[in-house]
């Protein structure tokens, strides 16, 4: 298996070289299909890691190793080169993260300033912004320890939907104090049957860390929330 993976590396690198092997147009055998699948996996990993390599040098190293030629780097030099690459990659990733976080913070503050000027928008002492879309006749506010059933759609300020119970076609149930602070604060002011629009500052959402690839650091989040029932 290791040999097969290494061979795929060779093909992956050589495919972009002028004298390298041509790409296949059809996959006729199980071996070709498996090899292609491994190649796609390797290419995807390179892309996900945003890893830059010199394809000619990569190909030379693989061929020298397979053909048992004299290597241009000894083991110590190879380890140092790989460590330097990892350190550089981490540095670039950190710089990219910090820039994205700074951009998100600036854009989020501008969005909050503009949104609070809109008709019907109210702002709490914490900075949470909300607008009542549908008000309920009966007033019954859930407590922090209550469990609620809600429908919601969450978006970034550019309109990207990152989560939606409505799209899944099923409301969710959770404790009021088991969600982000902005949600907890809003739910304790809502009554069953109400629908609110929320704009949640990053410090009341996922803050400087963000939440996975869908919610970057310092993201202001918008939600449309319908409180269906207090359980």
Q: How is the topology of this model organized?
A:
Elements lengths: L1 H13 L15 H19 L6 H12 L8 H41 L6 E2 L5 E6 L12 E10 L4 E4 H4 L3 E4 L5 H7 L7 E6 L20 E10 L1
Antiparallel strand pairs: 1-2, 2-6, 3-4, 3-5, 3-7, 6-7
Helix pairs in contact: 1-2, 1-3
Describe the structure in your own words.
This protein has six helices and seven strands. Strands 1, 2, 3, 4, 5, 6 and 7 form a seven-stranded antiparallel β-sheet that branches. The mean pLDDT is 85. 42% of the residues lie in helices and 18% in strands. It is of the alpha+beta class. It has helices at 2-14, 30-48, 55-66, 75-115, 165-168, 181-187; strands at residues 122-123, 129-134, 147-156, 161-164, 172-175, 195-200, 221-230. The radius of gyration is 26 Å and the shape is elongated.
Primary descriptors:
231 residues, 6 helices, single chain, 7 strands, alpha+beta, elongated
**What share of residues is helical?**
40-55%
Mean of residue pLDDT values? 85
Head-to-tail CA distance between termini? 54 Å
Strand content: 15-25%
What's the number of helices? Answer: 6
Spatial shape? elongated
Oligomeric assembly: single chain
The SSE string, one letter per element, is HHHHEEEEHEHEE
The biggest sheet amounts to: 7 strands, antiparallel
Structure described in brief:
With 231 residues, this protein is of the alpha+beta class. It has helices at residues 2-14, 30-48, 55-66, 75-115, 165-168, 181-187; strands spanning 122-123, 129-134, 147-156, 161-164, 172-175, 195-200, 221-230.
